[in-house]
Protein: ATP-binding protein
Organism: Ramlibacter terrae
Amino acid sequence: MQDAIEVEEEDARHTTLDSRLPSLGEVEVNVRIEALPPILAPDEVEDLLLIRPEFEVSHVRALPLHVRAHEAVALGSLYIPRSEMVDIEAEISLLLRGGYVRRNPVLAKTRQDIATVRHRWRSSSKATRERLDAQGASESPLPPCFVVTGLSGTGKSRGIRAILALYPQVILHSLYEHKRLRETKIAWISVDAPINGSVQGFLLRMFAAVDRALGIQGGPASYVQQFGRAKVSIDQKIEELAQIAATYHIGLLHIDDLQRLAEVHSSKATQVLNVIIQLANVVRVPLVLSGTPKMAEILATSLEAARRTSSAGGQDLWLPESAQDPHFCTMVQALESFQWLDQAVVIDGAWRQKLFAYSRGLPAILISLFTNAQKYAARRGAKVLTMAHIDMAYQKNCELIHPALEALRSNNPTRFGDYEDLQPTRVQIMNVLRRNREAMLVS
């Protein structure tokens, strides 16, 4: 079972919490919130998200030249969080804790809500189901949704999943306030949007994510094997998934690469989006949606989706404007300390300008450039890295993305039209409105 924590009366951290909290009769305490890690300060978030590769330069340099590159692949694990990640962590913390406020296990109403979810989703009448869903929406405010957008390579997916990893994915409760409390809580689930815009594909990903979280590796207990079969209808799969989400008290649902839905037929995209939102509405699970700016086009096509995704705001991870950007400079400084050729070069302002010009500040491209440049240098017997090796890495390893990078370097929005993922979120939304107006004029 991944990241499981058992919360018992004997647990030192939980015992301390119990000792300083009033009794249940005095205030309404919530074990699901208490079992989560403490709220982090901004500097703690930055330290915890920072990932330095297991790379000892002196050790690598002692190896034969042709072997060093095999050790240097660890450089790909380098992750330096952007300043925006601190804000994103704070929002995710609010969503996760706030989502459990109305799902307190010691309250009778929470148990009634779980039974209500089962009843709603197992209703045979579609009209009845829709009516019950509407009633559920009026019982309490719908869970909020937070949106993160950024170009491919900005580190949004990795950052969000690193933030989620700060929380144990599974928490096993056994006792609370000296009373028996047997439940398994899945604090968060993270899945990728289906490539083909298939509702069934999304549901299978969800079942597989629950299996992984619970440590189920096939067999009759596997939710994929139970409900992933073709003969099980999509409606039944949705019903079962809703019950699973309610039973395991899923605290937060993260859907990544949502821009994939913009690449399929609009009806399929709408179906997947509706399932995601309906699941969140009924089970009261907060949402985090992430993807390139292209995803805004999908969200803007649905009033319900647009309304929901504006509830908790969003964060756009746009590119740095110059080689003096603090995060970019920190990245370059970190890379400077991971040179595995015989001699190290000092990365000065000229180097930073070249690296920025080629990578446009995208961390994934920057790391790839620096890593491949050292490989080319080693294969040619060079003892020190030169700018010519950076040129070579850019020409050979970034050839397919040259046009997109050149469009970014031009800073000319008219050139972004050839690459929809490069267009800012607001431009994507304006595109949707423009197409809608054109369609209305034609009709």
Q: What stands out?
A: The beta strands are 4-7, 145-150, 170-176, 179-186, 189-192, 253-256, 287-291, 314-317. The mean pLDDT is 79.
